[in-house]
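This part of the workshop introduces the protein records we will be handling. A record pairs a protein's sequence with a compact description of its fold. Backbone structure tokens are a discrete shorthand for how the chain folds in space. The question running through the whole workshop is how a given chain folds. The record below serves as our worked example for the rest of this section.
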Amino acid sequence: MANNHTEIEKRLWASADELRANSKLKSSEYSVPVLGLIFLRYADHRFTQAEKELAGKGTGRRGIGKEDYQAKGVMYLPPTARFSHLLALPEGENIG
């Protein structure tokens, strides 16, 4: 992931230009799924950080669960909803 906002901004504008040039969609039609994916990427990043912090903190009686992530202020993401899982899906697969 890029370390500065200028690089991220350039990548986002280039991606938006690509969508405008290669699709017949208006920006209002593709903005919702694109913003959703940006949010999912952010949520996945936060979840991964919390997962590393929580690793090994479970006990024999109680494992790490959804509540532990929520206590850290992180949205729990089941494995099939994670960004990396969606990227690994074959082309044309329903990601909804």
